[in-house]
Specification:
By secondary structure, the protein is of the alpha/beta class. It has one domain (8-302): Spore Coat Polysaccharide Biosynthesis Protein SpsA, Chain A, CATH 3.90.550.10. Helix content is 39%, strand content 15%. The protein contains 11 helices and 10 strands. The protein has helices at residues 16-27, 50-60, 79-95, 111-121, 161-164, 171-180, 184-187, 195-204, 210-220, 271-284, 288-302; strands at 8-12, 36-41, 68-73, 97-102, 105-107, 128-132, 146-149, 157-160, 224-228, 233-235. Strand 2, helix 2 and strand 3 form a beta-alpha-beta unit. Helix 1 runs parallel beside helix 2 (50-60), helix 6 (171-180) packs across helix 8 (195-204) and helix 6 (171-180) runs parallel beside helix 9 (210-220).
């Protein structure tokens, strides 16, 4: 492994138990002791969150086991999206590469090795813009060790300064470019996922998502995202405790028991992976009448 390890950035808020599980799992990685660790702790959004934010801050102030640990305590509430955009921009511009986690992700002991290997192998390949540690729960599908997809999973990921410079925060600009180039169908993964609706909701202020804007930025720059064939982490945040997540198990995965070896391959989207993702997304779609009601509600909320 090259000594040029990427700094690990963790974004936390008010979930002390989840944060502890995330850090403890990360410390099970051999490379953790050689890695710089940076934690961004957002300020309370309301007085009701002050106690749990302080609990998280007390815990992260005691973390040991990394090469170095830096704590950034926000004095005002940035919100998850704002905190990630600001933090990733700062760290990646200073270091050239970055590994990003949130406080509800539980990684395997092979996560850091995979992420750093991928960052090293594809460092000079401009078309590769994102590395994902998470792989969707695509049942009964044999995928290669690693594969490229157009989609950029926001759970446990990494990138380079050369790629992040293309992040476009203005969702209206992104929407206009997709419409002008008539890429709506491709952006929505052949009509199986409502990313256009998400981007429109972002533009209308219904949601605040850095992730859909990053995916759109990668997509419009003809970028691809490297994924492991089997996930190297799980998301423990869909238990109803998250600010932006309800309770659900649809994204639960069986994580890899051995990691994933990164070796150079042709940089093109995996047809098998694309078909698997499309089948998974189709399985999530609600009935037609529910989709119509949702569209109407989004339009109503977007005018408020």
């Amino acid at each position: 492994m090259n000594n040029n390890l990427a700094p690990i950035v963790l974004f936390v808020y008010n979930r002390p138990v989840h944060t502890r599980h995330t850090v403890e799992a990360l410390l099970e990685n051999d490379l953790s002791s050689e890695s710089d660790f940076i934690v961004y702790s957002d300020a309370p959004k309301s007085e009701a969150h002050t106690e749990t934010v302080n609990e998280v801050r007390e815990y992260i102030g005691q973390i040991e086991g990394f090469k170095s640990t830096t704590i950034i305590e926000r004095e005002v509430n940035f919100g998850l999206s704002g905190s990630i955009v600001d933090g990733v921009t700062s760290v990646v511009n200073d270091n050239g590469r970055v590994i990003v986690l949130e406080d509800d992700l539980v990684v395997t002991p092979y996560f850091l090795d995979f992420m750093n290997s991928a960052l090293e192998v594809y460092e000079s390949d401009d078309k590769v813009m994102h590395v994902s540690g998470y792989m969707f729960p695509v049942d009964n599908v044999e995928l290669p060790e690693t594969l490229f997809l157009r989609t950029s999973s926001c759970w446990g990921w990494a990138t380079w300064a050369r790629a992040w410079k293309y992040f476009e925060p203005d969702s209206e600009k992104l929407l206009n470019q997709i419409h002008q180039r008539k890429l709506e169908y491709e952006f929505d993964i052949h009509g199986t996922m409502g990313y256009m609706d998400m981007l429109q909701d972002q533009s209308s202020g219904v949601i605040n998502s850095w992730a859909v804007r990053w995916y759109a930025s990668v997509f419009l720059n003809n970028g691809l995202c490297l994924h492991p064939g089997q996930s190297l982490l799980s998301n423990a945040g869909h238990d109803g405790t998250g600010i932006h997540c309800g309770s659900s198990n649809i994204y639960d995965v069986d994580v890899s028991s051995r990691g994933a070896i990164v070796s150079r391959q042709e940089i093109k989207e995996s047809s098998a992976g694309l078909e698997a993702i499309k089948r998974f997304y189709r399985s999530l779609r609600p009935p037609f009448h529910v989709r119509i009601v949702n569209r109407i509600m989004r339009a109503v909320l977007g005018r408020k």
